[in-house]
Amino acid sequence: MAIDESITARQFLKTWQQIFKERPKAILVISGHWDTKAPTVNVVNQNETIYDFYDLPEPMYKLKYTPPGAPLLAKRVKELLMENGFKSVHEDKTRGVDHGAWVPLMLMYPEAEIPVCQLSVQTDRDGTYHYNLGKALAPLREEGILIMGSGATTHNLGTMRPGGSPAPSWALQFDTWLKNALLEGRYEDVNHYDSRAPYGKMVHPSPDHFYPLHVAMGAAGENAKAKLVHHSWDHVTLSYASYQFAAPK
């Protein structure tokens, strides 16, 4: 998506500031590409670009996205988590932004002026744990912070292939189930997707790219309304369905 102009989701992200006009004071990204044993925030003054991938086209390694860090936001995230029962929250004082953060952000906010902080996921925990992680961060909504979960609605890399074919039934069924669950506010079902959704384990052999959704969902609150703001497929089985959560007025 960072370099392929034909990917529909890329065009959506490039129009982000036209659609969402409110400019955040800082951005908290929960990325599927940072997995740690305990919740961890990166506490840096300046973010460097992390090339946490391999065997991709050479132009990918020439891209740079170096927004300011958000150390005050990182400390606030740690404070909120510890106040809400997460006893061990770590600080990483060297980590920059991984491609789960910088690829979408370079399209959304190409000027790279808004401070960015990342929060890790814990793939040895479950959806409810990550939902509660998000609930602890709910006050950030009123502090001008954009909370962004970056992963994928469907993410089984072994099934991806060049485009041109329709998405298979198992991917479509999960994608539709998730849309209905979110729009109907059935967040508890989403928390237990691995047992309640069709093909949950097939779609997400590892939960790393799904847990960011749970954090964003929790941060919005149990009465928040979900809205589908983009939907497209890439490489046949990869859904770029994107959801906005708006807290009740």
Quickly list its features.
globular; single chain; 249 residues; three-stranded parallel sheet
Fold and architecture overview:
Helix 1 (8-14) crosses helix 4 and helix 5 (127-136) crosses helix 10. The chain is α/β, with parallel strands linked by helices. Strand 7 and strand 8 (238-239) form a beta hairpin. The protein has helices at 8-14, 16-19, 71-83, 99-108, 127-136, 169-183, 187-191, 193-196, 200-203, 211-220, and strands at 26-35, 40-42, 90-92, 116-121, 145-150, 225-230, 233-234, 238-239, 242-246. It contains 10 helices and 9 strands. The longest helix has 15 residues, at 169-183. It has a 3-stranded parallel beta sheet, with helices on both faces. A two-stranded parallel ribbon has the order 2-3.
